Amino acid sequence: MHEYVIISGKGGTGKTSMTASFAYLAGQSVIVDCDVDAADLHLVLSPRIVTQHEFFSGHEARIREDLCTGCGVCHEVCRFEAVHGILKPDGTTGYRIDPIACEGCGVCVRFCRVTAIDFPEKRCGTWMISETRCGPMVHARLGVAAENSGKLVSTVRREARRLAETQHRSLILVDGPPGIGCPVIASLTGATKVLVVTEPTVSGEHDLKRVLALTRHFRIPTAICINKWDLNPHMTDRIEAVALESGARVAGRVRYDSGVTAAQLQQRSVVETSAPSSRDIVTTWHQFQEAS
């Protein structure tokens, strides 16, 4: 089983458009959207949800106001300013915990004298298995202000592998998150190879260097693709040189093309249209498959 991960140094480089096109070209692979903080692959592939599951991670403190004596110890020990005083209906002072500010450390639970604070698992989001025209898709949605996106990414990838084994599919395509943080690391672990989508700008070069350092650290074969390369050919040459010096291969160049936006509005991948850039993406797909 092969697992290809498509990532980028920052958002907006065309990573998801590339993944959607690869999914169409691959034909019935298992597709994974690991950008759980801002998932958007579903906007192109129009998945039909088959199963949906809640994702729990960490804990969240909740004060039971009927048991709270208003002693204020929880307010004193909280270092995240998550505990706030309130006026109860009977005129006495009570306390309430802001779920957005609560870090789930449990200190208030430990020091409450009347055990008036519950500490249940925190619901952080949902993950789904869906059907698309390009094959099954595993994706997720992180809750508002929720953390632990790295754990949710790991859950999504684990389910994708299980699905691939169950359905005897030999390829998993992963739309990874941008950047180099925890969710990206969770997306890369165990990958067969990585494609980094970048753009011909100074910031694109800077971000690419950071991503290549990350993939080099994990010793994952890496290739790059420069999107909108024709907007700055000189910078494109420079970025390709940086990639080669870092041990990465150049899988392709994709021209600037308004047809990409038109395809998105139609909820189609670029290679499902007659957009000029579709030829570039097909070439990139073949060269990426050959890269080692």
In short:
By secondary structure, the chain is of the alpha/beta class. The chain has helices at 15-26, 42-45, 73-77, 107-111, 149-166, 182-188, 202-217, 233-245, 259-265, 277-290, and strands spanning 2-8, 30-33, 48-59, 62-63, 83-87, 93-97, 117-118, 121-132, 135-142, 171-178, 193-198, 222-227, 249-254.
CATH class of the largest domain: Alpha Beta
Helix content: 25-40%
Unreliable runs: none
Strand content: 25-35%
Shape: elongated
Here the CATH topology of the largest domain equals: Rossmann fold
Query: Spatial order of the strands in the main sheet?
Result: 3-8-9-2-10-1-11-12-13
- Count of discrete structural domains: 2
- Count of DSSP-assigned helices: 10
**What structural category arises from helix and sheet content?**
alpha/beta
Query: What kind of sheet is the major sheet?
Result: 9 strands, mixed
Mean pLDDT: 94
Helix and strand run = EHEHEEHEEHEEEHEHEHEHEHH
Distance between the terminal alpha carbons, to the nearest Å? Answer: 15 Å
Essential attributes:
single chain; 292 residues; alpha/beta; Rossmann fold; Alpha-Beta Plaits; 2 domains; nine-stranded mixed β-sheet; two-stranded antiparallel sheet; 10 helices
Can you offer a commentary on this structure?
The protein is an alpha/beta fold and 292 residues long. The protein folds into 2 domains: 2-57 and 125-290, 3-Layer(aba) Sandwich (Rossmann fold); 61-119, Alpha-Beta Plaits (2-Layer Sandwich). The protein is 35% helix and 28% strand. The protein has 10 helices and 13 strands. It has helices spanning 15-26, 42-45, 73-77, 107-111, 149-166, 182-188, 202-217, 233-245, 259-265, 277-290; strands at 2-8, 30-33, 48-59, 62-63, 83-87, 93-97, 117-118, 121-132, 135-142, 171-178, 193-198, 222-227, 249-254. The protein has a 9-stranded mixed sheet with strand order 3-8-9-2-10-1-11-12-13, sandwiched between helices. A hairpin with a 5-residue loop joins β5 (83-87) and β6. The mean pLDDT is 94.
